[in-house]
Amino acid sequence: MASDVKEAGGLTRLFVAVALEPGGTVTLDGGQSHYLLHVLRAKAGDRVLLFNGRDGEWQAEIAATAKRGVTVALRAQTAPQTEVPDVWLVFAPVKKTPSDYLVQKAVELGVRKLQPVFTRRTIVTRLNQERLKANAVEAAEQSARLTVPEIGEAMTLEKLLDNWPRERRIFFCDEGGNAKPLAQAAREAEMGPAAILTGPEGGFDPGERENLRGRAFVMPVTLGPRILRADTAALAALAIWQSVRGDWV
After folding, report:
1. Residue 21: how many other CB atoms lie within 10 Å
2. For residues 129 and 153, what is the distance between their CA atoms, to the nearest angstrom?
3. Cβ atoms within 10 Å of 31's Cβ, excluding its own
């Protein structure tokens, strides 16, 4: 009799890149196979859940185990494909552990794309793109979402603004004040694709603030009377946006 391979909180979910379809089989990669066999002690006949961001979520049964990887057979679709709200998070990277935390929590909060941006006061000068992607995949697996957000290549603020898609409004979290609260701005703005922009430790410098406020597609907003840490500001802004315009409404 088949059994469920469970982590704390529910059935194990794994992200795969291949197509998922009735009667199909999938050979899991080395890391996933090792995790199932040597951490969770799974065996042939046990069941897991798979998703790929395109074909919904599927229940699969471990059909074979070998050195080259675990092979699972797809049994039934457990959920149709859905998409998260169309909001991006544009953030200045912070030191490693806070960045890992920020990415994980932003995925849980339902962001569609994560776009790192280097500002004049950004302390971090290098990013491990694969680490960001791995954190995003793990968070998607654990949060029951059916997509993994895109991770954009880091770029300077000037380059980002010069190449920005004008139809996507940026809600610029300006710690300098003199702006509407984000919740009010989100309610009043026209519906459409959006992005939230948060700064580094130390905030944006005056020239960057002036540049941002001079762009027609940028709306300055405030997150309240207190100065928030960079990672706190990003997650607070996402939570506010989701509660007003996202899938929490």
Report:
1. 10
2. 8
3. 11
Eight-state DSSP code of residue 224: -
Helix and strand counts by DSSP (H, E) for the chain: 7, 15
| Angle (CA) 18 103 211, round 5° | 115
- pTM, 2 dp: 0.92
> According to the CATH classification, is domain 6-79 in 2.102.10.10?
no
Q: Measured between alpha carbons, how far is 151 from 153 in angstroms, rounded to an integer?
A: 7
Domain ranges in the chain with CATH number 3.40.1280.10: 87-245
Spatial contact of 244 and 187, defined as CB atoms under 8 Å apart: yes
* Backbone dihedral region for residue 225 (phi beyond 0: left; psi -120 to 50: alpha; all else: beta): alpha
**CA–CA dist 95, 232 (Å, integer):** 13
Q: DSSP class of residue 38?
A: I
Beta bridge partners of 66: 69
Architecture of domain 87-245: 3-Layer(aba) Sandwich (3.40)
* Residue 148 backbone phi and psi in degrees, to 5: -110, 125
Q: For the segment 11-49, what is each residue's pLDDT rounded down to a tens digit? A: 899 999 999 999 999 999 999 999 999 899 999 999 999
Range(s) of the chain covered by CATH 2.40.240.20: 6-79
Helix H or strand E segment including 33: helix 30-34
- The Cβ of residue 219 has, within 10 Å, a number of other Cβ atoms equal to 22
What is the distance between the alpha carbons of residues 17 and 169, in angstroms, rounded to a whole number?
31
